[in-house]
Each structure stands twice: as structure tokens, then as C-alpha cells.
Amino acid sequence: MSKTAEADDRGRIVIPHEVREKHGDRYRIVELDDRVELIPLKEDPIKGLRDAVGDAFDEKSIAEIKQEARDAAREDAIEEVTKSKQR
Predict the structure, then answer these.
(1) pLDDT tens digit string along 50-65?
(2) Does this model's pTM top 0.85?
């Protein structure tokens, strides 16, 4: 299904009723380099994350997943600072 939506003057976008019925009312907004994606949030956010990324986190504890995310964020921040200093 493909739909078009526009932001109103307050920046709100209405998610069509059919989409909300299928995926729910809560979404994670993910900003990528070339687009923005909405990822439906499940009642169990870790299960929703596993559903979204497939088997990338199989056999990992929540603590391991969190630590990997922190490490990746730290590396990204260092890379951004390094790039901005080189400019």
C-alpha cells in the first residue's frame, strides 16, 4: 500500500485509518540519510525491534544490545566530530 500525507501547519501528519488498524497507533520515527521511516511500536519494544531487524540480535541479551547501541552511537559521534574538525 502506498499513501501520500502532508504535514499541517503544526507539523502533524495523519496516518490513515487502515494503516493504524493494521500497525497500531505508536511509531518510532527513524531518520535516514535519504528518507524518514515509521516503525510500528509493539507492546514489547524488544520484540518489535527483533521483528524490524530480523535475526541481527538473535542470541543477544538486552544488555548486550544496549551496549552495542551505545558503542555505535559513541563511534558515530567521534566520527562526526572528526569530520567537522577536518572541514
Answers:
(1) 677 777 767 778 788 8
(2) no
